[in-house]
Amino acid sequence: MLTNLEHLGLAVPDLAAATALYTKLLGTGPYKTEHVASEAVDTVFFQVGGSKIELLAGTSTDSAITKFLEKKPAGIHHVAFEVDDIEAEMARLRAEGFILLNEAPKRGADNKLVCFVHPKSAGGVLVELCQSIAAA
C-alpha cells in the first residue's frame, strides 16, 4: 500500500546551479548529497515538510537522467511513494497489470529499496516505490 508521497525527483543538467536555486527557493539547504553508482547519478535531497525534493544529475551518457534530458527539458522525472512492504506492493501492482521496470527491489538513494513502474502503464508518469531500509 502506498503510504506517503516520499519525494519528487527532478532531472537537472547542472546539479550545482539547481542546488543553489532550490536553496534560495526553499530557504534552506539540502540535507544530503549522494552518488548512486548503479544508476550513474548524483543526487541532492531537500526536506519540504513531510516530503522531499530530489535533484538528479546524470554522471555518464548511459544514465537514465542524461537520456531523459536529451529528450526533455529539466523538470519532473518521477514521483516516489513510500511503501511499507515493497515486495508485496510490487506483487499487487503486477497483479493489477502494471509493468515494473525492476524484477526485484534494488538499493537506491537515501537508504531506500526502490522499484520503478513503467510510465506506459502509469498514465505517462514514472512512479518510484520506496521502502526505508532498517538500520542494522
TrEMBL record:
Pfam families the UniProt entry points to: Glyoxalase_4
Keyword Ligase included in the entry's annotation: no
EC number: 5.1.99.1
GO biological process: L-methylmalonyl-CoA metabolic process
Name of this chain's protein: Methylmalonyl-CoA epimerase
Organism: Hymenobacter nivis
Gene that encodes the chain: mce
Entry keyword set: Isomerase, Metal-binding
CDD domains xrefs: MMCE (cd07249)
